[in-house]
Amino acid sequence: MNKTVNQKAWLFVLPVFILVAFNAVIPLMTVVNYSVQETFGDNTFFWSGVLWFTEILQSERFHDSLGRQMIFTFSILAIEVPLGVAIALTMPRKGAWVPVCLVLMALPLLIPWNVVGAMWNIFALPDIGLLGYGLNAMGFDYNFTRQIGDAWFTLILMDVWHWTSLVVLLAYAGLVSIPDAYYQAAKIDGAGAFAIFRYIQLPKMKRVLTIAVLLRFMDSFMVYTEAVVLTGGGPGNSTTLLSIDLVKIALGQFDLGPAAAMSIIYFLIILALSWVFYTLMMRNEES
Amino acid sequence: MARITLDKLGHSYMENPVADADWALKQVDITWDDGGAYALLGPSGCGKTTLLNIISGLLRPSQGRVLFDDDDVTALSPDQRHIAQVFQFPVVYDTMTVYENLAFPLRNRGVDSATTDKRVREIAEFIDMTHRLDDRAKGLTADGKQKISLGRGLVRTDVNVIMFDEPLTVIDPHLKWELRSKLKELHQRVGRTMIYVTHDQTEALTFADKVVVMNEGEVVQIGTPVDLFERPQHTFVGHFIGSPGMNVLPCTVDGGKVYLGGNQIAVANDAAQGGGTAEIGVRPEFVSFADNGLPATVVKVSDAGRHKIVETRCADQTLRMLISEGVEIPADGVKLAFDTANTRLYTDGWLAGSRSAGGEGR
């Protein structure tokens, strides 16, 4: 086969190229630009090399917020994924209740993030909120604005409430795609409920669950709005996650250089961890 | 191992079936002998899969009983009935190896590992899968997967019946033939009762000793392939089996004699009985050119290899005949003769005199 050589075809790619340049490459490069420069105001910049990167990587503050971020992300993953699968398994696969369940499940996903934060903030207030007041009435000493444990509890509960649905919907999509013959064959083969889950449902859900874990990982690693509206990173810095810390440095202290360096490190961490997740989960797929 | 009896079985997917058409399965009474090879043949939607699922226990019939030997198993679940089923689309457990797939039904039943190992290797030998035992089942081709599904049924020693629900649908044509003969061979080796559901007459007729032909939720004929071909009990059987199918020609009956377009036709069965719509059934194989007989005109001749299919117009109806290669087709003034022994009168679809309009009423 002879291929026609026609370099003019590149022109067709040009619009996309321009679009991507303006919405991704150029903004990213500005950040890169800031990350290697120092300024004393007056819009004059000096070359500072990898100074900000080493500074950020060595700072205790960064280590702490990264640690908190990890705890948050892995806690919600550990809760939302099994819980989502469990709920999906109990949902009806046929009949009039299917749309009802689906709409109920989708509702939390439709609420704007800052509204979720505000809702939970009020919900959890110890003096007027239903949750806060209720817990105190039951004899628990609960105050999420003052006690670190309570703040974390509320933060994680809010995320579980907001995002488990996503896992449910994805897992459910995987479940309904399993043909009846599999269940019938399993019945004939004498498989119990656990064996059906382990050898039919779980393998068939694997792809959608991979997507679910990836999405929840990335989103939770970048969570900002809900958390900042709920706790504002407090009490103290106890719930200051990476994104909250970044905003504090960039817009609170206006340290553009360190903030830019941190953004890049932040981005690379998400990229690397996503890659690791994906590779691990897809490894068995190939063999 | 068991004889299977279906006793006045009926099923409807509706809660309150009223009309005849509400029943996916009208009354069915069949006895399948132990160790036989049976086929359930019929067009799509005739109720054969419903019937199969009732036998396997995946579906509870609206009425009637299923007996294995003399035990009523109607209320038992599939695993309590000790049956095996191969589905239309191959079911394998993707994450397991071929070995684990075959061992799965035994492990679920708590069979010890030494016995399991022995059985698995034996069956793997049977289905030519010994060399792939350690491979992941996921990577197999459709026919390989279908063999595994079958193997999972064979591996158990307590299986009463193995059922096949159109198992060759997704298999490549050139492998179909191979698998079909493999199945036949397997039946002879294991001697288990096998029920094979299909809408493909070739599959049914080559596999089964006895074929059950179904149409619109009822059994129209049970018989050997030869029976179905030579003595169709119903015009449906005549038309559905054979290629081309039986000619079904509306006719008139007067005083025990059958007339087709004014010519009297001799038939093999008793024409005196029965009223209703009268039709003559004669297979294309049993129509020949003759010096005296029914006048007809040749419309079309198609060459089908070793024989020709001749389409004629006779008494204002289309009549197909099958003639061998060497036979000359007369130019005009064609006269046709029917082989009397294989020409029958049907009333209301059923062979005249064979049954007293039974079966259709419920």
Q: Report how far apart the termini of chain A are.
A: 33 Å
Note the total helix count of chain A: 12
Which topology of the largest domain in chain B does CATH recognise? Answer: Rossmann fold
Q: Classify the helix fraction of chain B into a percent range.
A: 10-25%
- Could you list the spans of chain A in which at least 5 consecutive residues all have pLDDT below 50? none
Structural class of chain B: alpha+beta
By DSSP, the count of extended strands of chain A is: 2
Top CATH class of chain A? Mainly Alpha
The fraction of residues in strands of chain B falls at 25-35%
User: Can you list the strand order of the major beta sheet of chain B?
Assistant: 6-7-8-3-9-10
What's the gyration radius of chain B in Å? 24 Å
* Proper CATH architecture of the largest domain in chain B: 3-Layer(aba) Sandwich
Under CATH at level 1, the class of the largest domain in chain B stands as Alpha Beta
Count of domains of chain A: 1
Rg of Cα set of chain A: 24 Å
Shape of chain B: elongated
Q: Indicate the CATH topology of chain A.
A: MetI-like fold
Helix/strand structural class of chain A: mainly alpha
Tell me the CATH superfamily of the largest domain in chain B: P-loop containing nucleotide triphosphate hydrolases
The ordered string of helix (H) and strand (E) elements of chain A is HEEHHHHHHHHHHH
Please give a quick description of this structure.
The complex is a heterodimer of chains A (287) and B (362). Chain A has 287 residues and is mainly α.
